[in-house]
């Protein structure tokens, strides 16, 4: 491959990777149009009232917040849908939502997050009812997702640096751009793997059964993967493919 063609394809791939990563990062920072749809993981609690009713044998009232602008974490009612991003999460009632404060290295702790929204007469029965599964293990989920965040941020910086150094014509910088692309591929791969594994494990809540043994019903809380994780995997794939032209160009110029 010609040097110019290599630099062109490597840079285009790195640029696509960077754009995908930017979209992944902004997910759930607020509820304005674009970030609203982008999340790492979603939790749907809309069936939980029915699950709780079957478990307790009493009608359930006041479990959900009816106003989308009700503050989060204030024991004022849970939201039907929660979407979690890398920096914050939003709770949605009937399609409109409110978001938490944003902070870097946010831990994904879905169970504590949702229980903190419940009125006190429901949080106790919920912690007594759901006693197994990774979903309730906030320490495990929090630690791993926090670690994954740092890997993803290192990977994102590497992608930007690979793109930048790859555009400048200098032998040492060509070597650096290859190094950044390889390092970025590695850290993004580990970060994406951690998130994928953690979500798969938390999804065990989807098949949790409650109610009398004669007539069991689903708990009604379901975990699903969000679009941001697919963006992360796509960004990783683009970067991985870009390492090839980066390497070829690196070798090509080293020989001259
Ligand atoms: C949540 O789950 C309910 C019942 O399974 C479903 O009808 C609803 O469409 C889901 N909401 C979203 C946003 O996926
Ligand atoms: C829990 O509290 C809410 C609001 O205070 C009330 O509407 C609901 O009936 C209570 N539920 C139970 C099972 O006590
Ligand atoms: C929801 O709460 C906000 C602020 O507290 C209030 O302005 C709004 O009218 C409420 N909406 C409904 C439908 O109650
Ligand atoms: C959700 O929105 C629909 C249509 O806009 C409305 O009929 C329904 O009452 C709303 N539900 C709640 C809980 O606000
Ligand atoms: C969000 O930030 C505001 C202002 O910094 C603070 O007053 C509020 O308590 C924070 N909310 C949460 C849930 O931490």
Automatic annotation (TrEMBL):
Species for this entry: Trametes pubescens (White-rot fungus)
Sorted UniProt keywords: Membrane, Signal, Transmembrane, Transmembrane helix
Which positions carry the signal peptide feature in this UniProt record? 1-31
The record ties this protein, via InterPro entries, to: SUR7/Rim9-like_fungi (IPR009571), SUR7_domain (IPR052413)
UniProt cross-references to Pfam families, sorted A to Z: SUR7 (PF06687)
Q: What does the entry list under GO cellular component? A: cell cortex of cell tip; plasma membrane
Asked if Transferase is a keyword of the record, the answer is: no
Kindly provide the name given to this protein in its UniProt entry: SUR7 family protein pun1
Residue ranges spanning the membrane: these are: 147-165, 172-198, 228-248
GO biological process terms, semicolon-separated = fungal-type cell wall organization
């Amino acid at each position: 491959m010609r040097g110019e063609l290599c630099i062109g394809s490597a840079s285009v791939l790195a640029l696509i990777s960077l754009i995908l990563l930017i979209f992944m990062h902004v997910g759930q920072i607020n509820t304005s149009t674009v970030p609203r749809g982008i999340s790492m993981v979603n939790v749907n609690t809309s069936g939980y009232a029915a699950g709780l009713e079957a478990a307790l044998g009493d009608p359930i009232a006041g479990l959900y917040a009816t106003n989308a602008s009700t503050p989060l974490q204030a024991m004022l009612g849970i939201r039907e849908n929660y979407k979690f991003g890398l920096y914050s999460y939003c709770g949605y009632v009937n399609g409109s939502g409110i978001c938490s404060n944003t902070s870097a290295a946010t831990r994904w702790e879905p169970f504590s997050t949702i229980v903190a929204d419940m009125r006190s007469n429901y949080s106790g029965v919920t912690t007594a009812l759901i006693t197994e599964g990774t979903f309730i293990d906030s320490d495990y989920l929090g630690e791993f997702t926090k670690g994954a965040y740092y890997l993803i941020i290192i990977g994102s910086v590497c992608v930007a640096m690979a793109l930048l150094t790859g555009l400048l014509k200098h032998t040492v910088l060509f070597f650096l751009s290859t190094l950044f692309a390889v390092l970025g591929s590695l850290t993004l791969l580990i970060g994406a793997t951690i998130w994928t594994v953690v979500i798969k494990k938390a999804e065990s809540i989807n098949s949790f059964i409650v109610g009398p043994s004669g007539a069991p019903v689903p708990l009604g809380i379901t975990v699903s993967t969000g679009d941001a994780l697919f963006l992360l995997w796509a960004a990783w794939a683009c970067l991985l493919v870009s390492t090839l032209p980066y390497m070829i160009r690196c070798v090509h110029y080293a020989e001259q």
